[in-house]
Amino acid sequence: MSNPQQLRYSKEHEWLSPAEDGVSTVGITEHAANALGDVVYVQLPEVGSTVTAGETCGELESTKSVSDLYSPVSGEVVEANQAVVDDPALVNTAPFEGGWLFKVRVTEEPADLLSADEYTEYAG
Amino acid sequence: MSTSPRRTALDALHRSLGATMTDFAGWDMPLRYGSERDEHNAVRTRAGLFDLSHMGEITVTGAQAADLLDHALVGNIGGVGVGRARYTMICREDGGILDDLIVYRLQEREYMVVANASNAQVVLDALTERAAGFDAEVRDDRDAYALIAVQGPESPGILKSLTDADLDGLKYYAGLPGTVAGVPALIARTGYTGEDGFELFTAPEHAETLWKALTAAGEGVGLIPCGLACRDTLRLEAGMPLYGHELTTELTPFDAGLGRVVKFEKAGDFVGRAALEAAAERAESAPPRKLVGLVAEGRRVPRAGMAVVAGGEVVGEVTSGAPSPTLGKPIAMAYVDAAHAAPGTPGVGVDIRGTHEPYEVVALPFYKRRK
Prior knowledge:
heterodimer; A: alpha+beta; CATH 2.40.50.100; globular; B: 371 residues; Gyrase A, domain 2; Alpha-Beta Plaits; Elongation Factor Tu (Ef-tu), domain 3; 3 domains; six-stranded mixed sheet; 20% helix
């Protein structure tokens, strides 16, 4: 399992892409996807809504459990990945790619996000 | 008393296969090896291999072994033929279910009782206590057996390639001692998946040999190792109860819609008889809640403990729920007030984290294999 170097990570196992024109992409890590098992239902924040760093903004349901989705940053949601809503298995098969969750225009970024190496150590 | 989880004889093998392990009733068991959905589908369409060594085997022997079990359990155990098995229950004096069991009659005077892992000690204690005054011995054989199951439509072919035992003559719910892959095993045609399949009881020192032989024999037909996660979705689709969910000490077999396992016609008294006779009458005249199936119209999954609602009122409780790989929708088992329990009853929903999601009431099971 390798965590892409260009991303940053939260302790709730979300990843955040570098901002392009102020917009970053958010997803959950492969480590988190493996821990969840097969994801069967994804509820994403609505486009236009405001998310707050460290607070819940959706949920991920797997065979065995429901997990809250936390936003790693604060900002406005500009896109939600409809493909993953239609086919939640993408979270398992491509967590860092096609299984991305939403895009956010970042207004505030916590100082304690982890680098790939720090996250790899943190996730064990 | 050690609190570290027990490991089965196949533990090293599971780890080498990359299994995600989970604590289950004090045992470290494989939850899944890869995708639980793939494992589920393999059992439905090809074959799956399970380590079930956490199940609790208890041997009952002696001149009065049958009499003891007829007294201790609700079924007609003396009437089970040698080489046959029976699904039954052990109840308290008040009719509450202590556990559901499979009892195998190995010989005229020898039975093997298989209890759920979480209840093995309770069942052992109850049988030991109930054996007082009977010429019978109750023996804890939990450490004497590993249990490997091979389940799914390809399982007869896979097993046939490893044994000379007469599998064609081995009916559903029968068991016979034999040799599989060169090791002695009790071969039983039982399972908890809704598919054809076998459960193989063998000595722990032979478990690896047996597992590897079955793996090799099944390679060409798509057999894969399967964990407890898919075992749960398989049994749920098949409408089979799970102790602690559909069955508890608060419920009698009649409450669970399984009154047929109680055999009042057998001779002599048995533990719980009087209370169960009353429960049978209640079930006949004014059934309280009924165990039903629920199929989601949406995509959210009901979970054990969630309220079943109708017209804004709570009318029941979910006991098990999961996304069904076979139906492609979330399903659940629930106890629902009789007034709302008929298949097709409109307006029934489940309260999922504050939202009332609509569900269709259906008869169990959700899935039945084509014979």
